[in-house]
């Protein structure tokens, strides 16, 4: 009789819990609306994903260290993607499932973890290789939970767990991100200032693995990587002033790009990688020129009094160029066809610099000082403008002077340079989501002019 | 001589009487009062409480109802060959501008790759701008759009299946689908057909 009563009360308790969960779930979207996001990413809640600690199969202390690197990298890659709500490690179950047979999905889908997706797997060192089995399971779909199962093998090194985690995270983001590839494997090229020289450096998208690319010992600025990641164009101070130079990543050395005289600045690759647009003052006035990728057949696109600099191709179509022109006084943002036709002015005042076209071709990010002049309030901040409507939003606020925005290949992130007090030596590189959230620095000071690779 | 006098005879003394006796009476013996030792704990018995048995009504145990698993009705179509698509409604999501529900004609796909259906739902909802609809459109109107997703995840052939009665709302829902470049490659199969219902909810 007693046990019967107990059973009834337990059932009643389950029923109340179920009702509570229903109410709780029904209120989630209401809370999610409480904070501002840009229109492109709003409208539906993010996927809640849990990144479990991987199970270590070999009892090697070195393997434990590598596995820790792997776990933290995977977690931060998923958090940086900007499309997930990540389950905090402290809310996760204490188990470390290493294989599909070891996971108890109800443990992960129930509160407090409440995960819709679980990434888990096993980390092993076999001989001289790191072998990682990664799984992604749909915790709510008990009948067919498996979304992804991958095995990665890489030679043991300190960087191997990071690379594997990047690849696994990209795979997850690609599957769940609605067709947009992840960016965990991308690089950021930037200018590193040391002493009186500036050289081109590269780093992973999260700021790790910073290393030099060029060793010219000169002033090299505005690096731009080609769409196939094989060549790096930049502007370097040489014997005859600033020249466009090209560094082959495959050969590991400079390749030729003819010198034309004058000051040549801010190269930009066309999306097919066959053309380079840049600013050249060979005629005495800085104008936009387009040359083939090897520097031949340079032809002038603009012809107006006043400087024309910082061209960028529309990466979606390749037949439009956004650039900065000073033809009406202070530099403003313009777009035109790649043949110089249909010149349209986009900004109405202030001091505009360094445009960057978003990968889907809808937006241009740029640095803008809207109240330019001595004693004028405000400062230089990053703005994003929708080309079709000319509507813009301000993305950075009151953090000092911001410049050189560059879009990530998935169009969700912007990297930029910031100096809090306006001093060049304090310049460092920050990253953020394109709506201005999740902002954090990824380098120390002395880093400038970031350029995100094309994937 | 003296004896000759007629005097009353001499009375014998009653020495028992206190009032007549010359000898003092002895003081009464007083004994010291003794205190009684306390009773030992077990000497005094505590009376038992009178217990009364409560009267309990006879309870009859209800027998749990027997749920007989209903057998699904036999399919009206032959199992072999081409069967018509069965629509299973997927979970409805709450959006800031309404609700949306999506269903696919391929039943096994919907069950096997529920996560992909969710992605389709989310991506389409994110691209639905209700501002494009006529502001006079009444609350709660719903429009159903049918479109195909090919192997690369690109939507195509979007058309209005059940119009809402407001052409601008139909157009905004159609554009929400057309605005999506890709949903990501299909996890299986060559293409699926999706039926997507937009429910307008005005703020």
UniProtKB/TrEMBL annotation, chain A:
Gene3D superfamilies, sorted: TolB, C-terminal domain (2.120.10.30), TolB, N-terminal domain (3.40.50.10070)
Compartments (UniProt record): Periplasm
InterPro entries: 6-blade_b-propeller_TolB-like, Tol-Pal_TolB, TolB_N, WD40
Broad class of where this protein is predominantly found: periplasm
GO cellular component: periplasmic space
Xref: PANTHER family: PROTEIN TOLB, PROTEIN TOLB HOMOLOG
All copies of domain TolB N-terminal, residue ranges: 43-141
Keywords tagged on the record: Periplasm, Signal
Protein name: Protein TolB
Family, similarity comment: Belongs to the TolB family.
Record GO biological process: protein import
From TrEMBL, chain B:
Any one of the GO CC terms: plasma membrane protein complex
Localization terms from the record: Cell inner membrane
GO terms, molecular function: energy transducer activity
Topology of this chain in the membrane: Single-pass membrane protein
Keywords: Cell inner membrane, Cell membrane, Membrane, Protein transport, Transmembrane, Transmembrane helix, Transport
Biased composition (Polar residues): 14-24
Biased composition (Pro residues): 1-11, 62-76
Region spans: Disordered: 1-99
Residues in TonB C-terminal domain copies: 114-203
PANTHER family, A to Z: PROTEIN TONB, PROTEIN TONB-RELATED
UniProt family annotation: Belongs to the TonB family.
Protein name: TonB C-terminal domain-containing protein
Species whose genome carries this gene: Edaphobacter acidisoli
